[in-house]
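Sample entry (166 residues):
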Amino acid sequence: MRPSSLTPSERKALVVLGDFLLLWLALGLSYLIWALKGGNPFSWKFVLERKAWMVLPPLWFALAAAGGLYDYRNLISLRNTLRGAVACGVVVSLGYAGFYFFFSPHLSLPRGVVVYHSILSISLVGGWRYLLLLLHDNPCSQKVHPHRKRRGPEGCYFLPLQLPLF
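Predicted structure, serialized as tokens:
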């Protein structure tokens, strides 16, 4: 079943589920990087000893939901998706940096796992959303933009049109 045959609520549920799974995958990969950089074996014991970091995916997910990343207009726009994903990663990282600076003994908490998770989350969620937009009907293929008398780039999934650099 192609995402284009789904209703908006079904598409939203698919995006939410995909994001949620990818956020947990990002945490698992962050743990793996952490273990490899620290010379530790990557195992369930390693993960369970550091279970406090399991707050990152739900926190990121809650920030994304509160920031409107699951609104329909953001589901169909790669630019809005990437902005929201970057904003979530920055807020989580800055929040942790503030916590680390004000509430922890000097150098007692690792910083890398938050950075790894933020970078991986932005990459995985952005890639997932881009893939969904590729599978979805292309709004740019409409002959006439619904609110104007000409074609427009809003809602297009073509990457160069979505990034502010182009």
